[in-house]
Each structure stands twice: as structure tokens, then as C-alpha cells.
Amino acid sequence: MGTKHGRPYKDQQDIERTLKGDMKAFSLLVDRYKHMVYTLAMRMLRNRELAEEVSQDTFIKAYRALAGFSGKSAFSTWLYKIAYNQCLDYLKKRQGSPEMMSPDPEILKHRSLVPEVESKMESDDLKAMVRQGMDALSPDDSLIITLYYLEEQSLDEISHIMGISTNTAKVRLHRSRQRLAEIMKPKVGYYKTHGYG
Predict the structure, then answer these.
(1) 40, 45, 55, 78: which could join 50 in a potential S-S bond, CB 3.0 to 4.6 Å?
(2) 71 shares its domain with 23
(3) Distance CA 183, CA 55 (A)
(4) Whole-prediction pTM value?
(5) How far apart are CA 164 and CA 158, in angstroms?
(6) Alpha-carbon distance 187 to 181, whole Å?
(7) Phi, psi of 87 (to 5 degrees)
């Protein structure tokens, strides 16, 4: 049941302790996932205050619904689904123009997103380019890339979080990758032309 990080085992222990009234155990769950929940919220809302608000609401809702967590999916998948739905609710309520702010994505380090780009660039340059590229994507494109490449969620898990079929998740991921590659190509061309590559 454990992963290389042992998260599912730790999660289950903390869930059981929380359900028995141990709030310290729930604090451990919050600490374990607060960064990723916030990152997902920033991907969709692109507003720091709203992302913080959604993150808080996500954990409040998760706490209240914890007794109904069946364990059929990973706790992280269940939690990200709550966060995703909270973001959708905020977007519906605040349709118009929330102040756009620049997210602060981590460098893509576990799965190769655009290998032909990665092989030509230093990590700091790649990080800056990926940040610019992700900012230019739609919230859904940015989110699916974040889930797959940063949080290493499977296509099945992503389909559960976003409420779409696995095949649709696969198609969306492919299209999102293509869009990011298209955004990044001119930047790579500039990078090479000016003698950095």
C-alpha cells in the first residue's frame, strides 16, 4: 500500500486518528498537502487571495466530509477533487475579471515535459521559461499539466479529480503539452539564436 514516500499509509493513519477526534493528526494532513492544494488553486484562479481562500475552504470541507472518505482513491486524489470543485465554484461566482497574478510554478523535474527544450537549457532558464509558458495557458491546461507532471497523478486520478473520462484526460493532457510546447518554441529559438544553447 505504501509508496516511496509512504504517503498513503501515513494518510490512512492520520485519517483514522482525526476521526477519533485527534486534531493534531488532521494538522499533519493539512501540512502534507497545503502546498499542492494552493498550487492547484493558483493554477485555476491566478489570484493569491482567492487561492488562499479556496485552500482554507478545501480543508474545511475535507474535514467535514472525512467520515465519508471511502479509500477507493488516494486521499490526495480525493482532496484535489474537492479543491478543483471549490475553484470551479469560485470561478462561477466571480465570473468577470479576478485580478490576474503570476503563479509560482516549481520546475518540472520528475517527468520530461518538453525534452527537446530541457536538453538545451540550464535549469534556471528552463524554470523561467516554463513559468512564462504556464502563465500563458488556460487554467484547465495549466492545471492538468500541474497534476500530471508536478504532482505525478495518473490519468485515472486526473479523470477522477476533473470529472472527465480517462481518455478525455489523455487527450487534454496531450493538447495541453502541445500548447505549452508551441508557447515555448519561440523562446527556445531566441535562446539558441543568442548563443545560450
Answers:
(1) 45
(2) yes
(3) 29
(4) 0.69
(5) 8
(6) 10
(7) -65, -45
